[in-house]
Amino acid sequence: MQAATNLARLRDEKELRDAQFAMRLSLIVGLAMLIGKTTVYFLTHSTAIFSDAAESVVHVIAVGFASFSLRLSTKPASDHFLYGYERITFFSAGFEGAMIVVAAIAILLESIRKWIAGLQLEHLGGGALLILAAGILNAGLGYYLLRAGGRSKSLILEADGKHVLTDSLTSFGVVVGLGLVMLTHWKPLDPLVAIAVAANILWSGGHLVWRSAVGLMDYSDPKAGRKIRDKLDAICGELTIQYHGVRFRTTGYRQIIEVHLLFPRVTSVSEAHRLATALEERLPTELGMPAEVITHLECLEDHADVHHEQHYTGKPE
């Protein structure tokens, strides 16, 4: 059991190092994308390219905050934060989503302003090629971040990966739009593409904000619940104990699982504690994810009567 615990700890440390490397890589690439796209915008004066550059600004700001959140989320619990700092991951995802929404609004306003003022487009061919190269690079980075986030169970990395993939799709959409402008010579296609881009990233940002909100409200995913109960059935069946009252929530990195264990009246406290500890240690390993298991020991014969009495007298269970 100790060997399994040590192995899990080493795996968690490796996943953390990988996650930190992925975040640094995202920040470096984001800065390069921002500089490149801003340069292309000033060369072409394209509102579609402006929309792509604006999203890169958001990406750099969001990744900087996400990097801070990732470091903070791994700090151990303190006297003032007894449950640790992991739930900062939900705030980080919400912040990134909110920044994406702000960028979408800015793109809409700038597209309408330039359309009204008159469109002056230059060097569209070269600009389209540079944006295409940026889109391909971002697509590779986004896929890597999603994979790293899935391995480390990091909502921060997953949110960043989805944002980067959205950025790459934006770039591809911009390239298609610029290509149509060059083919048709109809300049209003440029702001129309920018408006379509804004609508797309507005949806993406809203989705991130929603995920952040449900995480902060301790939403319990039914799929995760089924997996937890399946493992509890197997482990408790092997240990010959019964359970009920399962509750769980995620911190964005690990699961917090509460379960009530039922023991016959003749079971000693020592034996009940030994079995409960075995369950607490085995369940995270069986789930294959970081988890903290909190057990509550009850007497099998009269637990229903005790619960009923507590409910009747208004006392908490």
List keywords for this structure.
three-stranded mixed sheet; 2 domains; mainly alpha; 9 helices; Alpha-Beta Plaits; disordered N terminus; elongated; 3 strands; disordered C terminus; Alpha-lytic protease prodomain-like; 317 residues
Task: Give me the Rg, rounded.
Answer: 26 Å
Q: CATH homologous superfamily of the largest domain, by name?
A: Cation efflux protein transmembrane domain
* Class by alpha and beta content: mainly alpha
Largest sheet: 3 strands, mixed
Give the domain tally.
2
Shape descriptor: elongated
Residue-averaged pLDDT, rounded? Answer: 77
CATH topology of the largest domain: the name is: Alpha-lytic protease prodomain-like
Q: Classify the beta-strand content into a percent band.
A: 5-15%
CATH secondary-structure class of the largest domain: Mainly Alpha
H and E string: HHHHHHHEEHEH
Distance between the termini: 32 Å
CATH 2nd-level architecture of the largest domain: Up-down Bundle
Number of strands: 3
Q: Helical content, roughly? A: over 70%
Contiguous helical run count: 9
**Low-confidence stretches at least 5 residues in length (pLDDT < 50)?**
1-11, 311-317
Order of strands side by side in the largest beta sheet? 1-2-3
Brief rundown of the structure:
The protein is built from nine helices and three strands.
Please give a structural write-up.
This protein is mainly alpha-helical and 317 residues long. The protein has 2 domains: 2-216, Cation efflux protein transmembrane domain (Alpha-lytic protease prodomain-like, Up-down Bundle), CATH 1.20.1510; 222-313, Cation efflux protein, cytoplasmic domain (Alpha-Beta Plaits). The chain is built from 9 helices and 3 strands; from the N terminus they run H-H-H-H-H-H-H-E-E-H-E-H. The protein has a 3-stranded mixed sheet with strand order 1-2-3, with helices on one face. Helix 2 (47-73) runs antiparallel to helix 5, helix 3 (88-117) packs antiparallel against helix 6 and helix 7 crosses helix 8. It is elongated, with a radius of gyration of 26 Å. 38% of the residues are buried.
